[in-house]
Amino acid sequence: MNVSLYGISVWVLPVLIAITFHEAAHGFVARRLGDDTAWKLGRVTFNPLKHIDPFGTIILPGVLLLAQSPFLFGYAKPVPVNFRNLRHPRLDMVWVALAGPVINIILATAAALAFHAMPFVPAGAAQWTFDNLKNAFLINIVLAIFNMMPIPPLDGGRVAVGLLPRPLAYPLSRLEPYGMLILIGLLILLPMIGAQLGQNLDVISTILRTLTGYVIQALLFITGNT
Questions:
Q1: Are the beta carbons of 91 and 116 closer than 8 angstroms?
Q2: CA–CA separation, 126 and 133 (whole Å)
Q3: How far is Cα 30 from Cα 92, in angstroms, rounded to an integer?
Q4: Where are the alpha helices (DSSP H) in 72-121?
Q5: Known active-site residue 176
Q6: How far apart are alpha carbons 170 and 168 in whole angstroms?
Q7: What is the extent of the structural domain holding 69?
Q8: Predicted TM-score (pTM) of this structure
Q9: Is the Cβ–Cβ distance between 157 and 176 less than 8 Å?
Q10: Which residue of 40, 83, 185, 198 has the smallest Cβ count within 10 Å?
Q11: What are the pLDDT digits (tens) for 133-155?
Q12: DSSP H or E run through 190
């Protein structure tokens, strides 16, 4: 029980900070670029309760964890953005979408820099502090990489819709209502089917893990942790 409680204590804070800053960043940039929808709804805030989605943030990751899924993921309550209110809708949509992953990379960098302050942490709190920083570093990188997958409604999908020529952007944008089903199929169902067939079909997870590894090594190098 103590191990379980300790595990929760070093994961909850990094997760809440990562998703809260991610969603608030979308709303903040949208407001700066002309859309105050999220601001009026109180979503440009660092209050995590405003961003937690009961299913996506709590139930889905819990079910996947219990089912020993090959890939664990979840999502927060998306910040509402009316792209038609943006001054330059297609281009500004890209900046709004990028805001979330960018703030996660900034948070991961801050956590990596904070490793250098560990000698000043009291001995009794050193392990707990280190585990929180380590998890914050990893969670923010994974969240940034995962969200940059080019599938709407993920941030990478909206970036692709904003940058691609209209003949390609339009059909991609129409996938948005089915984006979560596509993700579940690619990240969970396909690997499970592959396991039954004796084939490794866990291609997307492998790509994500590889990209995450590169970013981890790059940030550790940049922050002097290698």
A1: no
A2: 11
A3: 8
A4: 89-114
A5: no
A6: 6
A7: 2-222
A8: 0.90
A9: yes
A10: 198
A11: 999 999 999 999 999 999 988 99
A12: helix 190-197
Which residue out of 14, 23, 48, 133 is catalytically annotated?
23
The Cα–Cα gap between 41 and 31 comes to 12
> Do 80 and 43 meet the contact criterion of CB atoms below 8 Å apart?
yes
List of long-range contacts for 109-112, beta carbons under 8 Å, 24+ apart: 109/219, 109/222, 109/223, 111/136, 111/137, 111/140, 112/137, 112/219, 112/220, 112/222, 112/223, 112/225
Task: Count up the domains in the chain and report the number.
Answer: 1
Residue 151 — φ and ψ, nearest 5°? -130, 115
**Could you tell me if residue 101 is left (phi over 0), alpha (psi between -120 and 50 degrees) or otherwise beta?**
alpha
Q: Which two tokens stand for residue 61?
A: 């990751």
pLDDT digits (tens, 9 = 90+) for 149-184: 999 889 999 999 999 999 999 999 999 889 888 988
How far is 44 from 95, CA to CA, in rounded Å? 16
Amino acid at 154: L
